[in-house]
């Protein structure tokens, strides 16, 4: 199995990264730059904790800005198409059930959007790979470190679940 990250992302995921980039560039970086120049004006930089911390923060921001700029260029936005309805594809919300009656819900997203609290799993995960192309009532076999797990597809939708 390749460890290559896919470059797929939902439109909402792309916008979230783009917003972070804009915030860092237009708001956060200018604030920190201003704080650093004010700290520098106080004189001796070797003893100046605010100056040193500000410079560290600027390096973190610049590093994140470089990452986001490159990542946003590399990402491919995948939009939902109506012909995907009824089958699991990238961006789908899926409800699964096992023999014990345990129910889990996942959304298949890109690696930049993973969020376990929301049930967002990467397209590169064993679960997502097993789900792609499946339909409601299909059996899904997922290879896990503790053996093969068996699930059935209850619901496939391209809108968030409403609880």
From TrEMBL:
Keyword Methyltransferase: no
Record-linked SUPFAM superfamilies: FKBP-like, GreA transcript cleavage protein, N-terminal domain
Top-rank lineage group of the source organism: Bacteria
Keywords linked to the UniProt accession: DNA-binding, Elongation factor, Protein biosynthesis, Transcription, Transcription regulation
Xref: HAMAP family: GreA_GreB, GreB
Function comment: Necessary for efficient RNA polymerase transcription elongation past template-encoded arresting sites. The arresting sites in DNA have the property of trapping a certain fraction of elongating RNA polymerases that pass through, resulting in locked ternary complexes. Cleavage of the nascent transcript by cleavage factors such as GreA or GreB allows the resumption of elongation from the new 3'terminus. GreB releases sequences of up to 9 nucleotides in length.
UniProt name for this protein: Transcription elongation factor GreB
Gene: greB
């Amino acid at each position: 199995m390749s460890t290559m990250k896919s470059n797929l992302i939902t439109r909402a995921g792309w916008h979230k990264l783009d917003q972070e980039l804009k915030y860092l560039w237009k708001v956060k970086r200018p604030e920190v730059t201003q704080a650093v120049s004010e700290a520098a004006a106080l004189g001796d930089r070797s003893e100046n904790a605010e100056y040193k911390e500000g410079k560290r923060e600027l390096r973190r921001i610049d590093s994140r800005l470089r990452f986001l700029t490159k990542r946003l260029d590399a990402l491919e936005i995948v939009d939902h198409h109506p012909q995907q309805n009824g089958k699991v594809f990238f961006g789908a919300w899926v409800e699964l059930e096992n023999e014990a009656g345990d129910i889990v819900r996942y959304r298949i997203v890109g690696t930049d959007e993973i969020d376990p609290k929301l049930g967002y799993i990467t397209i590169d995960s064993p679960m997502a790979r097993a789900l792609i192309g499946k339909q409601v009532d299909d059996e899904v076999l997922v290879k896990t470190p503790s053996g093969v797990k068996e699930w059935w597809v209850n619901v496939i939708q391209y809108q968030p679940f409403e609880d």
